[in-house]
Amino acid sequence: MSSLSLAVRDSSTMLRRNLLHARRYPSLTLNLLLTPIMLLLLFVYVFGDTMSAGIGGGGGPDRSAYIAYLVPGLLLMTIGSTTIGTAVSVSNDMTEGIIARFRTMAIHRPSVLIGHVVGSVLQCVMSVVLVGAVAVAIGFRSTDATVLEWLAAFGLLVLFALALTWIAVGMGLVSPNAEAASNNAIPLIFLPLISSAFVPVDSMPGWFQPIAEYQPFTPAIETLRGLLLGTEIGHNGWLALAWCLGLAVLGYFWSTAKFNNDPK
């Protein structure tokens, strides 16, 4: 077999392994998935009227308008929370000895990481679909988006999932245990909370606005919001693309460099 055929075969095997683990032990993914769903229900049904009145500039509460504003941010937050499971899974593989066993086998070495990454991206897509279904059930609508905008939105979600997954893989590789991996990956959930996911950046205190603006989630949220709702995207589209590509490249080289360092 050619080297490419071997790489594809071994990567497919590792992908099946990770998907089987996710199916047999779904509790971690479900627990992480509950966070964006609970935040969605909390902000819509508890804070929805108050938040929508504030965002609307005093024009009165409009819960449906706030649902539309909220959902794009929570879809990206879903990706962040799902990739925490990837960091934990990679850390488990490193600490439980299976990686050491793989190093002694005649397999395509990068296939181990590729299996984790592809499996995580597929899980992110499924999680986004589930959260999106809950959002539609409580009133979210995207009637102004064209087919091209829907495809662009899907592409952004997949690219963002790929970028955060490579970062999560690196976090898992450098963590001494699963608990540390989970703690190290907390920024993937924390950053959306201080972005434009829940309120516009302009409504935040002046000293806090740079923190919310100069991070990967805010431009991605504004781009996704623009694609789904027809709002202004401006320069956020290019910023979101730059963040995704930059994080993906950084995570890839970080993860592969750490993985290729044989234990002494």
Task: Give the gist of this structure.
The protein has 264 residues and is mostly helical.
Which labels suit this protein?
mainly alpha; 76% helix; elongated; single chain; 264 residues
Computed CA radius of gyration, to the nearest angstrom = 20 Å
Show unreliable segments.
none
How far apart the termini lie comes to 32 Å
Strand content: under 5%
Q: What's the total helix number?
A: 12
**Structural class of the secondary elements?**
mainly alpha
Shape: elongated
Query: What is the succession of H and E elements?
Result: HHHHHHHHHHHH
List how many beta strands DSSP finds. Answer: 0
Mean pLDDT: 86
Summarize the biggest pleated sheet: none
Helix content: over 70%
Write the layout of secondary structure elements.
Elements: H1 3-24, H2 27-45, H3 48-55, H4 63-95, H5 98-103, H6 111-137, H7 147-174, H8 178-184, H9 187-193, H10 209-213, H11 217-229, H12 236-260
Helix pairs in contact: 1-6, 2-4, 2-6, 3-4, 4-6, 4-7, 4-8, 4-9, 4-11, 6-7, 7-8, 7-11, 7-12, 11-12
